[in-house]
Amino acid sequence: MTRLQTAFDAIDKANAADPTLTDGQPEALLYGLRMTSEQAALYPDASEPLQIACRGQHVERWKLPRKDFPMDRPGYLAWRTEQGRRHAARIAGIMREAGYADEDLAHAEKMLTKQGIKRDGDVQALEDVACFTFIRWYLGPFAEGRDAEELSRIVEKTARKMSDTARARALVEFAIPEPFAAAFRA
User: Fold this and answer.
1) Pfam family example for this protein (predicted)?
2) How many Cβ atoms sit within 10 Å of the Cβ of residue 178?
3) Which of 16, 24, 53, 175 could join 111 in a cystine, given CB atoms 3.0 to 4.6 angstroms apart?
4) pTM of structure
5) Which residues contact 125 (CB under 8 A, 6 or more apart)?
6) What is the pLDDT of residues 103-161, one digit of tens each?
């Protein structure tokens, strides 16, 4: 077994413990598999640290519930920051056990804590993969019950996080309707 497969197996085993089920599968496990699928389509030549960061972006996410933080914007941002820190530390441990070098661990940690978004190609690639995963699998259910203005803000924020190349591809791949498509052309 390769060290990449060893890392994937460890991430999948950790995420299989998620008590929240979607389509009969633990949600974190399903999310990791979806991230890997999007990464393979968007960045087929991705480095192993990027592949691992994609698979493990939400590793054991359920262990730090959103409700444990204030339900306002600062609380949300604090929760996301702490999740990134926890995910990075957990993935670094998994990578170490699989035999990866310290520089690979540091690179994965940088990606998972979003250090260098829009400046570092792999950090941006992880964000592109996360945005494609969100659009393909989660935007529809997320949009239910939201008014058009709120949904428009969410779509605009998602598009801003993406690279120019990913935004252009999203327009084609998802056939994004107007007025939402304007955010992807900006």
Assistant:
1) DUF4202
2) 6
3) 53
4) 0.94
5) 39, 42, 43, 46, 50, 163
6) 999 999 999 999 988 899 999 999 999 999 999 999 988 888 888 888 889 999 999 99
